[in-house]
Amino acid sequence: MNGNVTMTRGQATAPVVWWCLVVFVAILSLVPRVADLDDFLTTDEAYHWIERTTRFADALVDGRWADTVQTGHPGVTIMWAGSMSRWIGTWSGRGATTPADDRTTLATLRLVPALLQVLAIVLAMWWIRPLTSMAIAFGGAVFWALAPYLIAHGRLLHLDAMLTATVTLSVIALLRATAPAATRPRHWLLAAGALGGLALLTKGPALVLLPFTALVLLLTHAGAARGAPLVQRWRTAAHTAIGAGAWWAVAAVSTVVVLWPALWVDPARALGAYVDEILVNGGRPNGDGQFFWGQAVADPGWLFYPVADLFRMTPLMLIGVLAAPRAIRRGPGTRALLILAALVVFWTVVMTLGPKKFDRYVLPTWPALALLAGAGWAGILGALWRQRRRVAPLVVAGLIAIEAAQPFGVHPYTLSYYNPLLGGGVAAQRMLLIGWGEGLDQAGAYLRSRPDIGGGPVLSALPPALQPFVPVTVRPITDQPRVVANYAVVYLESVQRADEPAIYAVIGSTVPLHRVVINGIEYARIHQLPRPFDHPVDATFAGALRLAGVSIQARPATVLVTPAWDVRAALAGDLAMFIHVFDPAGRRIAQVDIPPGGPEAPPTSAWQAGQQIAVPLPIALPPDAPSGTYRLALGMVRADGTRVPFTGGTPVAVSLAGERALLLGTFELP
C-alpha cells in the first residue's frame, strides 16, 4: 500500500498484480455482504421496504406505472434492485415471494442490493486508480470492503448504502471528466450525470450533488484559465462549467425519467411526493426523538456527525484518515483526494444544518474517507516498501487481517461495531442512539425457548421487527395495560429516547429474565409481565419470592385460589406451600399442601429471577359449609418442615394459623 512507488517488480507483471488485487477486493467485499442475509430485520425494512418493494415489483409486472410511487424518498433504485432479487428468487425457486415469511423474503430481496455494493467497490477501485495510484486505489477499496459500518448498510434492503455507492461513483466519474488531460471527458461527464440520476432516484439528500458538482466544474475550469484577467477568467469558467453541467444534467434527468415509470404517467404526483418528503419529513427533527451524549434530545447538534464517525471507524481506518493530509501533500492524486475530502466536509455540513439527524445520513462520505485512509496508509508504508520489499507484503497482509477481524468478529451484527479505541459498544451506548432491529432475533430465540410462550402475546416497541422470530402475536408496547400480555421486550433505543416512561416503569418493576448483549451493548431486556390478580397482597417470602396479589373465586363446594408470584431472586432450596381455609367461626375446614406453582410446575429451586407465575389452585370445601365470610391463610414451608418468614402483607394470628402465616384474603359463601 505505497503511494510513492510502484507495487510491482516490473511493467510486465503490473496487469497481473492489478487483476489479482481486483479479484481479492471483490471477494473481500462479497463474503460479509451476502452471508446470513436472513439474520434480523431493521425497523425500516420491517415497517416499509419489504412491502414497498413487493408493491413496486407487482406494479411493474402489471404495468401500473403510477403505482411505482411508493414513497417520497423515492427509493426507486433500491426497489428496482429488490424487485430483481424477487424475480431471481421466483425464477430459481428459492425464497418467498410474498411477505408471509418476512425472514425468507428479506433474505431474497437483499441479495441484488448487496451484489451491487460489491460492484460499486470494484468500479470505484478501478476508476480512481489513474487519478491516484494502485496503492491508494487498493487501500481505499480494502477499507470500503471491510468497514463494518459500510458492510452493515450494504447488507440491507435500504437506501443509504445505495445512495452511498451512486454518489461516490458519480463524484469519481466527475473527477475523471475534469482531470488534467482527461481522456473522453464527455463520456465521464455523462457517466457522472447518470450516476447522479441514480442517486436522485434513491434519496432526496442526493440533491447535495448538484451544488457540489457545480463547484467542482467551476473551480476546475477557473483553474484551467489561469493567466487571464480575473473577471474574464471567471466568466469563461462559468460559461464552460454551465455547458459541462448541462451534459451532466441531461444524463441525470434522462436516467431519472427512464427508470421511474411514474414520471411517464403522473409526474405531478411523483415529484410532489419527492418534494414533500424533503420538506416535511427531512425538515423536522426525528418524530420519535434522538439521543446524544447521554441524554434524549430533539436535535443532537453540530458535534453529532463527527462523534458518530469517530465511533464507527475502525482503529486502522482512523489512523489512515489522520495520516491522509501528509500523504495528500507528498503523494500522488492530490487533486482527486482534496476533492474527496471536500465532499466529506461539504456533505457533513449540509446534513448538520438539518434538524433531523441519524449517523447513517453521512454514510455517503464514507467511501471518500476510506480512500483518504488508503492514501494515509500508502504514505505510512511508503518507506517500508522502498527499503524492505520482502517484509512489506507481510505487513500489508497483517494489516488487512487485522482490519478484516473487525467486521468478522461481530458478524452478522456489524451495526453493533464501534471503535474500540473510544471504548467500543460499552461507551457508544452512552453517547449515541443505538438499535435498529439488531438483537431482536436473539430476543425472539430466547422467547421461543420459553415453555410458557403460548401464554399470551408479547409486547414490543418494534412489533414488525420482532414478529418473524416469535411464534405468538407481538403487540405494540403501548397496548400495556389494555392487553394482558405474557412477555415484553424492552429495546435500548426506546429507553435512550425516554419513550413511554410510565409503561416502561411498569415493565421494569419485574426483574429481567434475559438480556441480549452484543459487542458490549445491552440491546434488549426481556421481562415477563406481572400476572393479573384481583386483590393486592405484596408479601415477600425468604427475600426472594414475592406474592404480588391473589384472585379468589368462590364456587359451589370449591374455592379457586390463584396466587400471582413474582420471583425476585433465585431460591436456594425447594419450598412447599399451604393454604388453610377458616370458616366464620375460625375453624379450619379445608386446606391444600402443594408446590407454589402447582403439582406439575418445576420445583422452586428451578425458578428463575423474573418469572411471573400464577396457577389456579382449587380447594374443596365441605358440602355443609355454613354461609358467611371465610378467611384464607398462606404459608411457605422448607424441606425440613420449618415455615419461611415473610415481610409485608398481613399476618394471621398465631392462635388461628400458627406462626408465619399470611392472610391471603377472604371470600363469601351465600
Outline type: elongated
Overall radius of gyration:
33 Å
Query: How many runs of DSSP E, i.e. beta strands?
Result: 17
How many domains make up the coordinates? Answer: 3
Largest sheet: 6 strands, antiparallel
Derived from helix and strand composition plus strand pairing, the structural class reads alpha+beta
Strand content: 5-15%
Task: Give the fraction of residues assigned to helices.
Answer: 40-55%
Query: Tally the helices: what do you get?
Result: 23
Termini gap: 91 Å
Low-confidence stretches: 1-12, 96-100
Structure characteristics:
17 strands; 670 residues; 23 helices; Immunoglobulin-like; alpha+beta; 6-stranded antiparallel β-sheet; 49% helix; 5-stranded mixed β-sheet
Concise description?
By secondary structure, this protein is α+β, with helices and mostly antiparallel strands. It has 23 helices and 17 strands.
Structure characterization notes:
This protein folds into three domains: 11-422, no CATH class; 440-528, no CATH class; 535-669, Immunoglobulins (Immunoglobulin-like, Sandwich), CATH 2.60.40.10. Helix content is 49%, strand content 15%. It contains 23 helices and 17 strands. The chain has helices spanning 14-34, 43-62, 76-92, 102-128, 134-146, 148-154, 159-178, 185-202, 209-224, 230-259, 262-265, 267-281, 304-312, 315-330, 334-353, 366-387, 391-408, 424-428, 440-449, 463-466, 492-496, 501-507, 654-657, and strands at 290-292, 295-297, 458-460, 474-476, 487-491, 514-518, 521-528, 535-541, 545-555, 558-567, 576-582, 588-594, 612-613, 617-620, 628-637, 646-648, 662-669. Strands 8, 9, 10, 13, 14 and 16 form a six-stranded antiparallel beta sheet that branches. A five-stranded mixed beta sheet has the order 4-3-5-7-6. Strands 12-11-15-17 form a four-stranded antiparallel beta sheet, with no helix packed on it. Helix 2 crosses helix 4. The model is unreliable at 1-12 and 96-100 (pLDDT under 50).
